[in-house]
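To whoever picks this up:

The nightly regression suite flagged Integrase as changed. Nothing in the input moved, so I suspect the structure step. Input below, exactly as stored in the fixture:
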Amino acid sequence: MSDNTINAALRQMGFDAKTMAGHGFRAMARVILDEVFGFRPDYIEHQLAHAVHDPNSRVYSRTAHLT
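Regenerated output under the current build:
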């Protein structure tokens, strides 16, 4: 599924491009899975199809805690 598909659905729901974009969902999922549900970061990165090289190289990691 492309970003354009997600973006088109968001526009149909009334969100404008400044409020919400499809690209942000992966980062949002990363934070929610870590901070809300407590999943292990290496599991999350694997699900997002990222190679986990070391704890400091996590893509989409925008969590509030220090890593």
